Amino acid sequence: MTEPRWTPYAVLVAIALLAALPLMTGSNYIVGIAISGLIFLTAAAALNLVYGYAGQLSFAQLGFWGVGGYCAAIAVVDLGQSFWFGIAFAGVVNLLLSVVIGIVITRTTRHAFVVVTLTFALLAGLIARDWVGVTRGPLGIPGLPPPSLMGFAFDTGARFYYIALVFALIALAFLYSLKTSRIGLILKAIKQNDPLVESQGIAPGPYKLAAFVIASVITGMAGGIYAFNLKVIDPSFLDFYYMQTFLIIVIIGGAGSFWAVVLAGAAMVVLPEALRFSNELRMVIYGVVLVAVMMFMPRGVAGWLEDRRIAALRKALR
Amino acid sequence: MRKLCRGNEQRAFIGKLTRRSRSPRLTGTVFSLSKHLSRRQTRDAMEVSATYLLQLLMNGLMLGLIYALIAVGLALIFGVLEVINFAHGELLMLGGYAMALTLPLVGLSYWPSLLVAVIVTSLVGVVLYEVFLRHIGQKEFERSILTTLGISMILLYGMQYLFTATPMMVDTAYGFDGVQIGSIRITLTRLIAGALSVAAFTGLYCLLRFTQFGRAMRAIAQNREAALMVGIKPRHVARNAVALAAALCGLAGAALAPIQLLHPAMGQAMIFKAFALVVIGGLGNMTGAVVVAIALGMIESWIGGFFSIVWQEGAIFVIMIVAVLLRPDGLFKRGSMRVG
């Protein structure tokens, strides 16, 4: 879908508003929601790269999210490094891990791909629970210290917010430039017609692997930052709930469209807060939303809008 | 006689040891002694644990048969509809809950509640197909996964809202009675579960092999267009397949309910293993699913008997990763839906 001409201005306004958000409200609650929102949004945008562009429905993102969170926490608590080292460490570990896994699973059929990535995520959860020597098992690692930079401690919600904001902006900018680059175009082509891409002399394997690895690194770093936002990490960090949230953001926005996913992320962060009355009912509503979207607009809001536009064009031409 | 011999051996060994211990290489002897003793101890433990091994084997077999019931349903749905059913575990859970809720009504009697559970889940299967799966096309693989994932969320959290996440104990008229076969003890509910699975497989085999109903299902799985050409209605066949798979799952859940604790997330824990089984066996291959399920039930039980619980849970995933690495299409060929 082509972007409207006013997109850059809208983005600038949004960034300005986001940057001013902690100044506009004194409420820790709202800032807290905004932090989660930015981090979830980034993870969802990374999932969009794998699922939306490369067309591979990966549940492994949950595993990378958890691995990132644990790596960052362990680097700070056990290795005595800084928060920034922890995030970088999370990125590097995820890079290595996703290359190893990616080489194996990009060879499989797309059916097996789903199942294998899913099992990786579950295996990560099991390891988090059972490898007590490193992860502390079900107790988790509590009391993660607030990050600090040159003596400045990001110890309040409003200060931590800027870490999340800067990370989200960098990651989204990177994903956006990737999307508009040649690599993004090739990924899109791979999703649409694999054999045709091969006939053009392009091997799809490395591109799929690259998308998988980049998404994993971003998701892992997002997980690391989120763990420090929670100030504690335990096996519930690998709860399937996070994967469902990322997926729903991508699905509602429309897999494969950048801005729609970003907007859906913002919307889906507000919705759970409005539905705070019961955790179970909130998940039921998530499920209903997922099924409804799949039934009535399988390509998300973006796909639905595009279909409408094409229908209008056809009507005008007739 | 053997015992005597070994006694002599031991005495001779100790004599040798005392003689050698006067030599300056003391550490070496101590080392060899401890090594020798530990080897002897494990050998004794092995002899004693022949029954333990058999016990583990029986438990594993029962577990494997239950896994196979779930996996075979998944393979059936995949073979006919090309859909991986994420809500399959929730069907299992519904079967268990149907059993648990009916049991007090019929005076803890096992068989009527089992029947109720199977009927309820197969009806849920029909609804699932008619309302949701029917609208999903052959090529829309991701859409089918996400739809069934949504259904699974609705069922799982809906049940959790209604019945809370607290595990339920299910008591039947059989209680915790057991049977003694040789030196192995096995509870009656487990034995019935195993027997039921075997009966279900036999029934399923005959159904797919000898009835028109089953032939149509295999025909669709083999070649959709050709099946259409000879007048088979894919919609009816697919509905039957989903209902049949759901009934098998309900049977598994109902059989499982008196064996382990019942809670809304029990389906999720089982279904992920069932996915792994189906992938190892070859997607859509029912024989493969059954064989791999039984084998893995036993492997899991043995690992659980000798190592810590981590390995028991992790084994299946490690085996799957290795299997997919070596044979991306599964151990058994995906030659449509093979029966026999």
TrEMBL record, chain A:
- Subcellular localization(s) per the UniProt record: Cell membrane
Cite the InterPro entries for this sequence.
ABC_transp_permease, LivM-like
Which residues are listed as membrane-spanning?
Answer: 7-24, 30-50, 57-77, 83-105, 112-132, 160-178, 209-228, 240-271, 283-305
Q: Which domain of life is it from?
A: Bacteria
Q: Which organism is it from?
A: Rhodopseudomonas palustris (strain HaA2)
Is Nucleotidyltransferase a UniProt keyword of this protein? no
Question: How does the entry describe its membrane topology?
Answer: Multi-pass membrane protein
* Regions annotated as coiled coil: none
> Any idea which GO molecular function terms this record carries?
branched-chain amino acid transmembrane transporter activity
The alphabetized UniProt keywords are:
Cell membrane, Membrane, Transmembrane, Transmembrane helix
* One Pfam family, short name: BPD_transp_2
According to UniProt, the name of this protein is Inner-membrane translocator
